[in-house]
Amino acid sequence: MRKKVIEIYQSGKGYKAISKALGLSRTTVRAIIYKWRKHGTVENLPRSGQPTKITLREQRQLIQEVTKDPTTTSKELQASLASVKKKNIIPTVKYGGGSVMVWGCFAASGPGRLAVINGTMNSAVYQKILKENVQPSVCDLKLKRTWVLQQDNDPKHTSKSTSEWLKKNKMKTLEWPSQSPDLNPIEMLWHDLKKVVHA
User: Which residue ranges does the record assign to the Tc1-like transposase DDE domain (predicted)?
Assistant: First the structure.
């Protein structure tokens, strides 16, 4: 738009004509032409004075905060900026850094055993975990004989060998719809645990 003002000005038109042609105020047209005559450009000039003290990251943080809640006060913004200053950031392992796989169980009466899985989980490992942890958990939680094992349709849980193992060890399982992790109560528990760990 600024360049267009200069083009029209160079063709001999006055402030009023330029203003009318481009739908700008005369004051704006005058300011653009003055800047062009004085500095030879209509682009933004480098600003004088002390450079900004906040980084681009901090600027993004402020914009995000105000976008989320436009009623944020300057004191709240200062506190938010202070929290992202380098000296307040605790370094963490980048790109996940690793993970721990665990198997756990619980009942209405409380949590059962938790088993750490080393290596790859397969049907044989899963059956070993069940053998070592389910019955002791049933005893610890004082469950009645009518307890039912609830597990999702993970291939390790539904493999032929696991199904036979469950039948041989008289462990009754709950029928489970496919592709329904949202129904699995332990997934909710893991979700809550992750939130606490990452907080």
Answer: 98-197
Q: Is 154 exposed, middle or buried (0-12, 13-18, 19+ CB in 10 A)?
A: middle
**Contact present, 171 and 141 (Cβ < 8 Å):** no
DSSP-derived secondary structure letter, 51: P
Read off φ and ψ for residue 164, nearest 5 degrees: -65, -40
Which are the contacts of 104, defined by CB distance < 8 A and separation ≥ 6? Answer: 111, 112, 113, 114, 115, 186, 189
Instruction: Determine the Cα–Cα distance for residues 194 and 91; give it in Å rounded to an integer.
Output: 19
Output the pLDDT for position 101: 86
SS3 category, 84: coil
φ, ψ at 112 (rounded to 5°): -100, -155
Phi-psi region of 98 (alpha: psi -120 to 50; beta: other; left: phi over 0): left
Return the closest-CA partner of residue 159 out of 197, 126, 136, 118.
126
The single residue listed with the structure tokens 């291939």 is: 155
Structure tokens at 34: 């003055």
H helix runs in the chain, sequence order = 2-10, 15-22, 26-39, 56-68, 74-83, 123-140, 155-158, 160-168, 185-198
| pTM of the predicted model as reported, rounded to 2 decimal places | 0.49
Average pLDDT over residues 187-199: 81
Give the SS3 label for residue 116. Answer: strand
Residues 102, 116 contacting (CB under 8 angstroms)? yes
